[in-house]
Amino acid sequence: GEGSFLMDNCGGDVVNITAAMRTPLAPQTTWARDVEYFEVEEQLPVQRTARYIVVANSFDGSTYTVDSALYEWTGGRLEAVAPNPFENTKGAYHWRHFVMGGAHYLVVANHYDDQGNGYGSPSVIYKLAYSAALGKSAFTPVQSISTAGAAAWEAFAVGEDTYLAVANYFNGSHFDINSKVFKLARTNPDTPLPRVVSVQSIPTRELMSM
């Protein structure tokens, strides 16, 4: 059915948007834990500023393996991006957008997989790149990262180095577990796979945010 979003102070500019989402493209938001707004200066198929929101859907009433959703602000409203690049996320708790080497990425905090790995479900990095088959830019998964009940991500840069920090919440038996900081090898936009290296473990307990 119809839904709405309100976005304030997104991407450095104050943007107040109340947007009805059209069906049937708009998947139903279900137990949404987080939304992340970001902008991309796209060059193909035409040069434009694309504005997106990604929604972390975590549960549908029966399973935690549900589709998260990506929306684009276009024509004065939010439209669901099709095909949906974020199918079958695992109890998604949080999304974080970051840019590395000129390329745009999203990382999802997969919190719980009731059909397999439980709280050991890996989180996933997706990269945005132009798809000739689709005739537009699209996100594809490029890297999995071992996490334990991941609840949040933070991305930051130190000089030319890019880092990701994850808030690990629970490993299935203990809340007193390490959260981690990862270093991502600097890449250019044509490099498909970032190299992720764990550089620090931080003792935490039931950490839900970074």
Your description of this structure?
The protein has strands at 6-7, 17-18, 32-42, 48-57, 65-66, 69-74, 77-80, 89-90, 92-100, 103-110, 123-131, 136-145, 150-158, 161-168, 176-184, 196-205. The chain is mostly beta strands and 210 residues long. The protein has a four-stranded antiparallel beta sheet with strand order 3-4-6-7, with no helix packed on it. A four-stranded antiparallel beta sheet has the order 9-10-11-12, with no helix packed on it. One of its GO terms (biological process) is signal transduction.
Global geometry:
globular
SS content category: mainly beta
Termini, distance in Å?
34 Å
> What is the count of distinct domains?
1
In total, how many beta strands?
Answer: 16
Q: H/E element string?
A: EEEEEEEEEEEEEEEE
Q: What is the number of helices?
A: 0
Low-pLDDT runs of 5+ residues are 1-27
Which percent range fits the helix content? under 10%
Give the radius of gyration.
17 Å
Chain-averaged pLDDT: 85
How many strands, what sense, and barrel or not for the largest sheet?
Answer: 4 strands, antiparallel
Strand order of the largest sheet: 3-4-6-7
Beta content: over 45%
